[in-house]
Specification:
A hairpin with a 4-residue loop joins strand 1 and strand 2. About 75% of the residues lie in helices and about 0% in strands. The protein has one domain. The longest helix has about 30 residues. A two-stranded antiparallel ribbon has the order 1-2. With about 475 residues, the protein is mainly α. The radius of gyration is 22 Å and the shape is globular.
């Protein structure tokens, strides 16, 4: 007689709380199993399966919202903060999937493992956003990192892509080692890896030197992932060499997920020891803004320019991070949402215009685009102006909230430096726009038809950027609720 194993209500609730990760991993495995049986002409089916998995995971956030609480003994948190971060990374994954289909066809690398790796990476990012303790965070970080190491080298016949993958793997492994050693030191000093446990251990206690060293090593490991200076040296080469849709993902979703983990560690676990990390954040913010903006000034390759731009934006986000308040956390989250949309959209435009072999990446290759492909030029201009921080875009309000949070915390000089860097950044963004609208078109340029999939991704990215610029209140309110849930 068969023995029944009933599922308790708590077990079912735990499952609901990790539903996005379950759906993403299941779909990734399904794509890997189905793809070998698909004929070459139907390889796109893998993309649609992956897209369905991403949309299903996004829809499952409703289940997470209906069952708030800790999953599996506090290993994962299902709270407003986790929901916000999940929404960002899942939207990026969905739009990146749409934006990759035509690119993979053009490069003759339309393979199911690309989408599987993208889904696994997204699942790892979701774990980072909801992690309740350091070992779980490490597993999520590794799951995301290993997948993106492979994706960075997906153009196997391109030397730059192989170089990008190798550099990302070697330097990423060093950063992971720092993070893991930091975890070990925090455990040795407090006897726990749970964020709440570390927080309790620091109450009315002076942090030991071992704990301070552990926090410093954690910051090194995570600083690499968010491309913050002085840990940014790999970014231009990796972003340039990786397939451009992969670069779009690297520049947006992992940054959002890792910043979310940093917020949990620094504000939840080490909130009472802010004196240990405030000046490290302050210095990293200044270095990131200056290195990113001044490095971008010298670039003529658009991918490298946007890579340096990503470094600069990490600095702007750190300005809000340094505020050490709930408003600062909300500003970080809002900035991450706006940044993900505008950076993803910008790189998807570059992916399309680069053509087969990514041969058209110089600024002069964009000359006359406003005449030849006005809709595409308008989209690219919107994303660049939002990255610049022009009013009526999500990027403007992202910077406004970040700077306001820092001013409220009386971090005046950091805001002054950030404002000056924003002026510097305007030069290289406007240079590309001037190229598109004021330079003579290149006669040999042959416009590439925009597929419905990439058009959909660009329209959604542009619509989100405009929405956050005109109607930010709802997203900012959710960001503030997310910030309050951290405490």
């Amino acid at each position: 007689m068969p023995v029944a194993f009933p599922i308790s209500a708590e077990q079912l609730a735990n499952f609901y709380r990790v539903a996005p990760e379950v759906i993403l991993c299941f779909t990734g495995i399904l794509v890997m199993l189905v793809d070998p049986f698909l004929p070459a002409a139907r390889k796109r089916i893998s993309a649609w399966l992956a897209l369905a998995g991403g949309v299903g995971a996004l829809a499952s956030l409703r289940l997470v919202a209906m069952h708030p609480g800790d999953a599996y003994g506090g290993l994962m948190h299902a709270d407003d903060f986790s929901l916000f971060v999940h929404a960002i990374v899942l939207v990026v994954a969905i739009l990146a999937t749409l934006g990759s289909i035509q690119y993979l066809d053009n490069e003759n690398i339309q393979r199911g493992e690309f989408y599987s790796l993208l889904l696994f990476a997204t699942a790892g990012m979701g774990i980072l956003g909801g992690a309740g303790e350091l070992i779980t965070a490490f597993l999520g970080l590794e799951m995301s990192s290993i997948s993106t190491y492979i994706l960075a080298g997906f153009r196997r016949n391109a030397v730059k892509s192989n170089e990008a993958s190798l550099k990302y793997f070697v330097l990423g492994s060093f950063a992971t080692a720092f993070f893991l050693y930091g975890i070990a030191m925090v455990y040795g000093a407090t006897g726990t890896t749970h964020f709440d446990g570390v927080q309790a251990a620091l109450v009315n206690t002076t942090p030991s030197s071992l704990l301070a060293l552990g926090l410093a090593m954690i910051f090194v490991g995570l600083g690499f992932k968010v491309v913050a200076a002085p840990f940014q040296i790999y970014a231009p080469d990796v972003y340039e060499g990786a397939p451009t849709p992969v670069t779009a993902v690297l520049a947006s979703a992992p940054k959002a997920a890792t910043f979310a983990l940093m917020l949990r560690i620094f504000y939840t676990a080490f909130g009472s020891a802010s004196h240990l990390w405030f000046w490290a954040i302050w210095i990293a913010a200044v270095l990131s803004m200056c290195i990113g903006n001044f490095g971008a000034l010298a670039q003529t390759n658009v991918k490298r320019m946007l890579a340096y731009s990503s470094i600069a934006h990490a600095g702007y986000i750190l300005v809000a991070f340094a505020a050490s308040t709930e408003i600062g956390i909300a500003a970080v989250l809002f900035y991450l949402a706006a940044y993900a949309l505008m950076k993803l959209g910008a790189f998807l435009v570059v992916a399309h215009l680069g053509g087969p072999g990514e041969k058209r990446l110089d600024i002069k290759d964009y000359a006359g685009l406003g005449v030849q492909q006005p809709a595409l030029a308008a989209c690219f201009s919107l994303f660049l102006l939002s990255l610049l921080g022009l009013p009526a875009t999500g990027g403007f309000l992202g910077k406004f909230y970040a700077f306001q949070a820092a001013l409220d915390s009386r971090i005046l000089w950091l805001v002054v430096i950030a404002a000056l860097n924003s002026v510097v950044g305007s030069y290289y963004y406007l240079r590309v726009i001037i190229s598109m609208y004021f330079w003579d078109p290149q006669k040999e340029f042959q416009p590439i038809a925009v597929s419905p999939a990439i058009a959909t991704a660009l329209v959604l990215s542009a619509a989100g950027t405009i929405y956050l610029g005109f109607f930010p209140s709802r997203v900012m309110h959710f960001a503030l609720l997310s910030a309050l849930s951290l405490r």
